[in-house]
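Async update (no meeting this week)

Hi team, since we skipped the sync, here's where things stand on the single-chain job. The sequence we agreed to prioritize is pasted below, unchanged from the tracker. I ran it this morning and attached the output directly underneath so nobody has to dig for it. Comments welcome in thread, and please keep replies under the output.
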Amino acid sequence: MIYGIYGLYYIFHQINIYSINIYIMFLSLKQQVSNTNNDVSTFESKLHELKEQTDMAISFHNNFIKSDENIKTIVNTTTTNAFKISTLENVTNIQSKEISTLEDDISNNASRIVAINNSFTATTDKLKTDLKNEIQNRDDADIMIQLNISEESKKRYHAIMAEESRAINSENNLDNMIKTAQDTLKQSIEDESKLRNDSLSQLENSIKENSTNHSKSISSEQSRAINAETILDSKINNVETTLNESIENEATLRTDSFNQLENKINEEATNHSKTILSEELRAITAETTLDSKINNVETTLDSKMKNVESNLNQSITNETTNRSNADKMMTFVSVGEAEGKLNLNQYPFCYGSGSHSKDGFGVGIPFPVKLVGIAISVCSKESATAYVQFTVEHFDIEGTKTICSNDLIFNMNNLGINKYLFNMNLSQLYEPGNICIRVSGCGNLSDIEAIYRISLFFQSQVELG
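Output:
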């Protein structure tokens, strides 16, 4: 409210300043008119004096024009002054007209100033009334806010007193609970201490009894260990004796076996020498025969290799030609996208800049092609019962639909799970024209934010480039 009063006061102050400036301007114009009138009066008095002097000079000239040569000079000067007086009278008339115009402008400006002053007075009165009303409204609002604050303070005071009473009662209850818990804890500690003392006495008796039993067990175990060591030493001695005898027997058997093996090796070496000589003779004969056969094979193989090389070069040439022709019959892909809930007989897919398809307005192809593959991807939140069916239709270059008994149809069932369809085993031929995808069947579709993307893979049936 204070800022509002200051704002109105500032506006009122600016209006007063503006009024004072207008009044000062009015006084300035009035002073200028008064100064101009004074200047005109002074000029007229000087003009009248100059006229009198001229008349006196003319009279003197008429009386003495023939008396002296100097009078002639005075006459010329008087004539010049008369011409200047005439010019001055013309200037005076012009200034009189300008003064009249200036007086008219001052009168008009005075009328405008009076109108502005009246408008300013009305605006000031309205602003004073508005300011008075605003101050009254702000005072009423301040009184209402003060009453609300007083009422809210009373409510807060009563609430604080109630909360203080509740806190005192809670502290008393908590003190009682703590005292009860302390008494219970003290009794529990005393009971636990008694149980611990009883348990310690029983544990001490049990330890003493176990110590006695352990001493007896240790003595018994020592006796058993001594007897077991004695028996084990006896058995070890017996095993060492038996093992030494076995080692001696094994050494004798090894020596006899080595002698027999050496005799057999010598005998086998003699037999091997004879066999090696016989094998060398057979190998020389076989090598001679093999060289002859190898020469024949080399001759035959050389002839066959030349024929194979010639055939291979021809095959490479043919393959290069076929590859070049196949490269010119290139495969390309066209991608379309659709969004939202699909409708029956709709051409929903967009290509390029995003314009929707329609019958005869799809993927434009200016040469014969073969559709060799298709891929469809779906991103949606459809239920398991939702399905959609797409049909590939062809329109010739005139925009007329081609009647075909084997239009390609692709079904996507259970869109809640199945989101993709891929088929790279197609071989459908099309003439130049437009390939359009139509929704030939659909059901239970509800997702308005579903997204569909289709990729069509075409192979050119003519050589390009």
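Quick observations from my side:
The first strand starts at residue 331 and ends at 339.
The chain has two helices and eleven strands.
Reply here if anything looks off.
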